[in-house]
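Shipment paperwork, digital attachment
Item: protein structure file
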Amino acid sequence: MTLRDAVCIVTGSAAGIGAACAEGLAAKGARVVVNYSKSENDAREVAAACEAKGGQAIVVQADVASDVDCRKLAQAALEKWGRIDALVNNAGTTKFAPHADLDALQASDFQHIFGVNVVGAYQMVRAVASAMQKEGKGSVVNISSIAGVSGVGSSVAYAASKGALNTMTLSLARALGPAIRVNAVCPGFVETRWLKSGLGAMYEQQKRAYRARTPLKSVLQPEDIADAVIWLIEGASKITGELIMVDSGMHLGPGNRAR
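Attachment content:
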């Protein structure tokens, strides 16, 4: 897919991975819908950065847990540019809770997390599918997590939601081909404001531990994830239903490495 003048929606793009995706797409000449749920000022800064990098951008408030808002996001892109070429399902939420503390999560926590991370992603795909099918092509990239593969991460509910998102990626890749490709990127430890806030005093310790355990001896930056997302949209024309691990090799486990 040629990104010059392509119309791309990036949910949850006011900061972190979503912002890096929006700005990276704009740098390729794409027209980007920057989405936020609460952080309007941050979203407008991202939109300005997109335009400074040569793309076009509009800012749309929407909570992906609401189907009405998902349809509003898609409609905003269609009203502005008349088409939708790519969707990056980045919006997500969690509750930080030790996996072994079974009383740390309630049913309402699962419902909220799944409502954003799984149902929200599904609703966004549904909202854009007809526009992509009309063009005869389209690309969806779901931002998942190694939590959904390895059962780690901020909480059991979060890991379970990302596992569900991975399975949904496979289902939708089958259902929506050949016109629409659906893939997922599974990041590891990404240095973002969101993760730093969630881990609090444990952030630096967790970062050091992650770096020490990975074959590449590194954590990730938002731009590392954006690079994979952009490649899946722009260059991976025969790839669908894939879960791409961008985690410095963490998913490989400690193993035995040559010294």
